[in-house]
Amino acid sequence: MKKHVDFLIIGTGIAGLSYALKVASHGSVCIITKSKPDESSTALAQGGIATVMDALDSHEDHIRDTLIAGDGLCDEEVVRFTINESNDRIKELIEQGAVFDKKQSGEFDLGREGGHSAHRILHYKDQTGAEIERALLKAVKEHPAIELLENYFAVDIITQHHLGVEVTRRTPDIKCFGAYVLNPHTNKIDTILAKSTMLATGGNGNVYNTTTNPVVATGDGVAMVYRAKGQVKNMEFIQFHPTGLYNPSERPCFLISEAVRGAGAKLCTIKGDYFMGRYDKRLELAPRDVVARAVDSEMKITGDDHVYLDCRPISKDEIFNHFPNIYAKCLSIGVDITKDLLPVVPVAHYSCGGIVVDSNACTSIQNLYASGECSCTGLHGANRLASNSLLEALVFSHRAAQHAIAHLSEAEFCENVPDWDDEGMVLNEEMILITQSLKEVQSIMSNYVGIVRSNLRLKRAWDRLDIIYKETEDLYHKSVHSVKLAELRNLINIGYLIIKMSMERKENCGLYYNLDNIKK
Ligand SMILES: Cc1cc2nc3c(=O)[nH]c(=O)nc-3n(C[C@H](O)[C@H](O)[C@H](O)COP(=O)(O)OP(=O)(O)OC[C@H]3O[C@@H](n4cnc5c(N)ncnc54)[C@H](O)[C@@H]3O)c2cc1C
To answer: Does residue 151 have its Cβ closer than 6 Å to ligand 1?
Structure first.
């Protein structure tokens, strides 16, 4: 089946939904998601959105904190406009129906998180993301001009490569004509032709064994752009959250928000040794990479599977009012955080790198935009400051919408795109080939390409991943399309990019930490 839309959007998190609402009055809009619309990292965000609202705070301070976290790799111009535009974007989000906690005085109740020099985290209890997702999704569903397709999986973006034209990484004018999308009703691949396409496909945490990311976070957008010969960068900068709830059978791993440490919780070993003082004078409020490495180091020294987060310094009132979701979740596995120590481990949480975009969210491929976690804007540099990512998505989706609307009249549909060809393909009947390979990829990445890397570990990961890559490509080119196989293929691509870019980075900075770089 062939379909024509002015604006095709892939992804229903904050980046895709906020963009859809902005372009909807300027043309036809189709937004697709590979799962249920609210299965996204956005819906899981707990801490909140960073924005300057306190009289004692300033944009300059927020800019400085962001630049410090990014460790010299942020694009300062991007940091400046993102933060300077933050209040306008948040105002719109509130007008679109999102609710944030207020104090009795009527002012917003701003939280504080690691790396921030002031209280500037706007939140809705500990379910900020769910509240934002609820409000945006409701507005999208009620909008008459937006078509929302659930369980539609984008397989590849369409470029001139699909018209038989050779495309390389040096081709200057690669163009996107839309996307090939797996239709869940027919199990066939549809061709969606679009004048402009937005990738808002989120992160890639599932390349690791343990992650806070939802199961849909398989790096599809980044892999699609890389296959289409577009630019991707900074993939080596993976943020590991220091405090995932230690509950080995659970995927995704439940996150214990940084705001809990902001409220006074302390980290200790199983023997009760409060260790952060040995690592950083900012203690538990040091940036995430410092805290995650400290936890990783203590676990390696003690041989324990986890450390503890001691939430008892936080008053019961604050726990019940500010962290009801975290409290209930921990209680459900038998831990009362007002009384008991909570077992936690570092987990893959956020990808700072991704599809390279300019200040209007334009990728290196014409008519293709990227926003949110799949993109690399220059805001985060080598490390993301907590609660800056929801903000980044809002600012870049807004800029992308303005750009796409302004250029819509110049864009045309490409009518000679061929249908997807799966002639001669067979149904792969052995799921084990996919599930086992996925486990192997995750274990290679967790064992060799985790918080602390070395040249030898990276080489081992490279060699092992290469075997799985060849087997999977072979299987993929013989099989009728399946979502699980496509996701595996994408994750292998993501693993390859993380390893390759790690090998190319010769100095430690931000989240990147290679033992061989210290020895120099
Ligand atoms: C547990 C957790 C807590 C967090 N807390 C915070 C916080 O407090 N503050 C903050 O700023 N950030 C936080 N983050 C990070 C932030 O939530 C994400 O970076 C942000 O929500 C990403 O939004 P997005 O729109 O880019 O992607 P997502 O919200 O992940 O949405 C991606 C969408 O793309 C769809 N998709 C993906 N691939 C395909 C495909 N091939 N075909 C069709 N659809 C596809 C998915 O189904 C999904 O709808 C947190 C993240 C997690 C996981």
So the answer is: no
